[in-house]
Design a protein that fits this description.
Blueprint (H helix, E strand, L loop, with lengths): L1 H6 L8 E3 L2 E5 H8 L3 H10 L9 E3 L2 H11 L13 E3 L1 H11 L2 H38 L4 H14 L21
Antiparallel strand pairs: 1-2, 2-4, 3-4
Length: 178
């Protein structure tokens, strides 16, 4: 699982925004580091002094339930006994250090790079938004055409949604005797 996630660049998609922090869950981190969640959490408990509150936190029952319902995962039978830990970028680095395998060290580097890529994307989006606001203020009320172009650009930037694959006329499936 470790190499698949790293090779496919899927780490970014597994970073979540919880309590205003970008985090990765213990089960995901364990999979990336090539160990079990139980083993990772054992190492975390043994090295608790290396994990202050800004490195990791445990999800509340409500947060864990919301994640389960959001991702449609198992809700109890044979599942986790405790709520998951959420690791910030710094906590993910420390976790790689306490697991201390070569695979964990290499995967830790990939996790840090994924957090850095997300940070730069967010920064670029904020910069573009600020530049558009300055441009809009400069234009004022005199040129409505430019204002509408700026608004269209802003709408394109919001959401980063993919175009609907099902848009347009549908092709008929099956055999046509004519």
């Amino acid at each position: 699982m470790t190499k698949d996630i790293i090779a496919d660049g899927q780490i970014e998609s597994r970073i979540l925004l919880i309590r205003g922090h970008r985090v990765i869950l213990d089960s995901t981190l364990a999979g990336i580091y090539g160990t079990t969640t139980k083993r990772l959490n054992e190492q975390i408990r043994r090295n608790a002094e290396r994990f202050p509150a800004d490195f990791m936190f445990r999800l509340t029952s409500e947060e864990a339930h919301n994640l389960r319902s959001h991702f449609a995962t198992s809700s109890g039978h044979g599942g986790r006994r405790h709520t998951p830990y959420a690791f910030t970028e710094y906590g993910a680095i420390q976790a790689a250090n306490v697991v201390s395998s070569k695979a964990a060290i290499q995967a830790g580097i990939a996790v840090v790079r994924a957090f850095a890529r997300l940070r730069s994307l967010v920064s670029a989006h904020k910069d573009l938004t600020a530049k558009l606001a300055r441009l809009e203020a400069r234009v004022g009320v005199h040129d409505e055409d430019i204002k509408s172009v700026i608004e269209a650009i802003r709408q394109l930037g919001e959401g980063f949604t993919q175009p609907d694959a099902h848009a347009g006329p549908k092709k008929r499936i099956g055999f046509d005797p004519d």
